[in-house]
Amino acid sequence: MNEPDPNSFYADQPARSANQPYGTAGTKKSSKKRIAILVAIVFVLIASLGVGAWYAICQHNEQVWAQEHKTFPVTISILSEDYDPTASSPVPILVRGTDFEGNPVSMEAMICSAESGQIELMRGTYTVSVSASPFLADGSMFDVSASKGDFEIAGDGEMGQIAVSLSMAPISPNDLTEEIVTASKDKLVSLGFDEGSANQYVDAALSQINSARLTVQLSDARAGFAAELEQLEFDFDNDPRLVGAQFEMNVAAAEYRQKYDALVNDMYSYLTTIVTGDELANLESSQALWEAEKEAASQAAGASAIGGSIYSMSIHGAAMECDRDRINELLAMMDQKIVELSR
Fold it and tell me: Which of 3, 94, 173, 251 could covalently link to 212 via disulfide, CB atoms 3.0 to 4.6 Å apart?
């Protein structure tokens, strides 16, 4: 059996130079690999530290920015004895001003709570105003031309302490216009208020306008009829014919009867354009009853003077008395209607 040659291992190895130590090539490759790994680790560590530092800086900057740009609550209260938020529309408000960076600010909102509303703003100087009148349940509205307030947000020390009060004065129905009503409705709807509810308020407000106009119109008409009656009474009491010959008295009585009749007819016709429904039916019924009573009174007066010279004057005199009574009744109806419209 052949013994293995102990030199055969070295026989298969590449020849080494005299100056090359055994194992140097493998050692160099291993060293380079370790160096590359160490460099990579160092790079990763440096990158991680850089990212961490960058993230920390960003977090700090975000916190600083958030602190500088934080908003503060501003409480806005509406001062008006007539305004009841639970049964009225919200109050539209407008805020304008400049924030701490000098940027212009303009925002709109609605105050809907029972006593006040809140908005959030950064530091700065501002003016808040009521941008359009709210509606009351009955359609009443407000003059908001002077409903303004100035305020400043200085910083943390005022947090929760900023409050602005806005006053509103009721506007007379005589000064209310369709333009004011429409502007308020459009403003509320643009801020998100339900349009159907807004239209209900509009209808009530327009009814207020119509009632106010009708009140003025009816008051003027009533004054005109009263003045006409006063002049007619004066002319009748001072007409010399009524103390003259019987013929002249009869002629004068006939003329004045026509004037009283005309005044009654004018007043009645006017009222039929003012009242409606049951009121109109009652007016027509009372007019028919009055005409029947007047006719009966005239006939009774004539019957007592048949064949006499005062026959004609008696009939006319009885008719005029009925006319005077009816005129006063119609004036009273106008007064009652004016009161109703003014409520």
Answer: 173
Reference 115, options 76, 159, 164, 161; nearest CA is: 76
User: Is the domain defined by 72-172 classed in CATH 2.60.40.10?
Assistant: no
Q: Could you tell me if 295 and 289 are in contact, meaning their C-beta atoms sit under 8 angstroms apart?
A: no
Per the CB < 8 A criterion, the answer to whether 277 and 269 are in contact is: no
**pTM, entire model:** 0.69
Contact 76, 116 (CB under 8 A): yes
Beta strands in the chain (DSSP E): 72-79, 91-99, 104-111, 116-121, 124-130, 142-143, 148-153, 162-167, 169-170
Tokens, residue 39: 């460099």
- Closest among 263, 44, 292, 74 to 165, alpha carbons compared: 74
Which residues have a Cβ under 8 Å from the Cβ of 325 and sit 6 or more positions away?
290
Per residue in 249-308, pLDDT (tens digit) is: 999 999 999 999 999 999 999 999 999 999 999 999 999 999 999 999 999 999 988 878
Instruction: Locate the domains of the chain by residue range.
Output: 26-66, 72-172, 209-342
Across the range 304-314, mean pLDDT stands at: 87
